Amino acid sequence: MESRATKIKAKKNGKLTISVIPGHFATNHSHVNYYIDITGVKHHSKAAQLAAQELAAQFSGSTPVDTIICMDGSDMIGGFIARELSQSGSRSLSTDNDICVLTPEYNSNGQMVFRDNTQSMIWGKNVLLLIASATTGKTINRSLDCIAYYGGKAVGIAAVFSAIDEMAGLPVHSLFTIADLPDYQTFSPKDCPSCKQQRKIDAIVSSSGYTKIE
């Protein structure tokens, strides 16, 4: 499967790359015809810092950010974004803010939750939502609902890759989009053409990676 991988460079910074693998893949919400591997951007410090610089630039002149909520293992990128937005001398409205960086937990019902000791970092705060990869938008919707439940105000959405441009009236600022992968498609399992052609699933994919189906 890895032999089919190709690299795509970010339009704004050619040093940032992701790998894409064509095939038949199943996520929790849908079936997709590409696996988008952003492991390097999430877990290599230099790539994460470059990604953060590009994403932070999208929010420098907008609403101040008090808290960044990181989904899909994007914590390192979130920490670098916080540094970019809060450093002295930047044009950010968040300059000198002590920006909090949080990741939700999940309870036994699969609901996103924050512990009592961190809820004050969301209540009444301007919150930037950071997603590693957005395909159907369901994770973004759940995250925005969670932010609202804990009394936060979502002021922006950032992603490494996003197949959607807007959610709940907020633009999704991403480093890579379907313009970089024009034949990218996502389907509900019942409408998946590969399933109808009885083509086997190559791998189960999630924000953590993939597991091949032998």
Automatic annotation (TrEMBL):
MF (Gene Ontology): glycosyltransferase activity
Protein keywords: Glycosyltransferase, Transferase
Keyword ATP-binding: no
SUPFAM superfamilies for this protein: PRTase-like
Keyword Transferase attributed: yes
Protein's name according to its UniProt entry: Orotate phosphoribosyltransferase
Taxonomic placement: Bacteria, Bacillati, Bacillota, Clostridia, Eubacteriales
